[in-house]
Automatic annotation (TrEMBL):
This is EF-hand domain-containing protein. It comes from Adineta steineri. Gene3D superfamilies: EF-hand. Residues 65-100, 101-136 form the EF-hand domain. It comes from the Eukaryota. GO terms for molecular function: calcium ion binding. InterPro entries: EF-hand-dom_pair, EF_Hand_1_Ca_BS, EF_hand_dom, Recoverin.
């Protein structure tokens, strides 16, 4: 009595989960089952923790430093903020970053950069994410125009329509869509 039970996550894929994922993605039943098989193979307890998340990213960026980027990405994808990513959170995040239209993918990128979760990106948040992206891809040159703080200031100046030195989601999406250089740097897959 009074003992706190940790919430168990089922490793079985239910019809309800498949229906939820299908309603929010373009995946077929078969693709969902294949993703699930791989997820459970890598995460037998049905949860992806920060350490395993970073290991997965390291496979895609073997020469990069993934830690900073993965911390922010993990926090974005852990939608219920319980310190782990379930299969549904995982596949919905994958779909949002790969299947969505440009606005949807830019929206995910915005959420990733909005570290404080206040609905705005300020220069410090943007510089932090630019540094994390540099680490991820192994970019060493951070002088002059490549300085993360300068680059963040330039981007904010260019995209900030209200003059408050912060970007709303609408400003971010609109700016990325109209400036191909910024779009490529901040949301290359969108």
């Amino acid at each position: 009595m009074g003992a706190k039970k940790s919430k168990e996550v089922s490793t079985e894929l239910t019809a309800k989960q498949i229906a939820l994922i299908k309603a929010n993605t373009k995946y077929t039943d078969q693709e969902i089952r294949e993703w699930h098989t791989g997820f459970i193979r890598d995460c037998p307890n049905g949860k992806l923790d920060k350490k395993k998340f970073a290991e997965v990213y390291k496979q895609f960026y073997p020469d990069g430093k993934v830690d900073k980027y993965c911390k922010h990405a993990f926090d974005t994808f852990d939608t219920n903020h319980d310190g782990s990513i379930t299969f549904e959170e995982f596949l919905l995040a994958i779909a949002a970053t790969s299947q969505g239209n440009v606005d949807e993918r830019l929206s995910v990128a915005f959420d990733l950069y909005d570290i404080s979760n206040d609905g705005q990106i300020d220069q410090k948040e943007l510089a932090t994410m630019i540094s994390a992206m540099y680490d991820l891809v192994g970019e060493q040159d951070r002088k002059g125009d490549k300085d993360p703080k300068k680059r963040a200031a330039d981007i904010i100046t260019k995209l900030d329509l209200t003059g408050d030195k912060k970007l709303t989601k609408a400003e971010f999406i609109s700016g990325c869509k109209t400036d191909p250089v910024i779009h490529q740097m901040l949301a290359p897959n969108a």
